[in-house]
Specification:
Rossmann fold; seven-stranded mixed β-sheet; two-stranded antiparallel sheet; globular; 226 residues
């Protein structure tokens, strides 16, 4: 279920069509359709902000505007080819970050947790590399209203079918215009996702949802204990 080769194969499509094509700014699940979430939860700051799974680096400008210095890591060399002009990058596995313990003041993961076979392991790495008191912002597809078990063909009547509790990897999708049908996605039920933060030693501080009338995105702000 490694996402590396899969994202290498779709990197150009992702950059040129999924992110920038007609309607991309408003399409459900598009990582540019996040409203004020990142700015509100991360907030202004200084120093390094590590982006886990930075992909093509589309969030670097906003992170920089908040005063942070963005640095990105991603498994996919194809995606990083598009990111290299946007922020400093390194090719790395989120569950084995090439970063010293307690060395960064902030980290983010934006619309990537379903691409990782073991997001809980990535959260443990986030907790390891954050300084005491450091902030982590997770923004991802909503575990309750997105996944292979959901049909979002009619946003006024989203259908949640059996499968929510299974936590499976799947390529099943209600649309062929997104990412899941091309590279697949993992799923963590809400309780499993939140417990993964706690098990990593992160303190939950704030939550937010985005998208209407049924949220497509859920965000979490957490912090490493001082």
């Amino acid at each position: 279920m490694s996402s590396t080769a899969a994202y290498d194969q779709i990197a150009d499509w992702y950059e040129k069509e999924f992110l920038s094509g007609p309607g991309a700014g408003t399409a459900a699940g598009n990582p540019r359709n996040l409203g004020r979430l990142l700015g509100d939860l991360l907030g202004a700051g200084s120093g390094t902000c590590l982006e886990i799974g930075c992909g093509t680096g589309v969030h670097a400008a906003q992170v920089r505007d908040l005063g942070w210095t963005p640095v990105g890591v991603d498994l996919s060399s194809g995606m990083l080819c598009h990111a290299r002009d946007r922020l400093p990058i390194a090719q790395a596995d989120a569950s084995r970050l090439p970063i010293r313990d307690s060395s960064v003041p902030a980290a983010i993961a934006v619309m990537v947790h379903t691409d990782m076979p073991s997001y809980p392991a990535a959260l443990h790495e986030v907790a390891r590399v954050l300084r005491p008191g450091g902030v982590f912002v997770h923004i991802g597809v909503h575990p309750c209203f997105c996944g292979g078990f959901v049909d979002r063909g009619d946003l006024n009547a989203v259908v949640v079918r059996p499968g929510y509790l299974d936590g499976n990897w799947t390529k099943r999708s209600w649309t062929n215009q997104g990412v899941r049908d091309k590279v697949g996605a993992t799923h963590l039920p809400l309780s499993s996702l939140l417990h993964a933060f706690l098990n990593a030693g992160l303190t939950l501080e704030q939550f937010a949802e985005h998208g209407a009338p049924t949220p497509v995105v859920m965000a979490v702000k957490a912090r490493k204990a001082t």
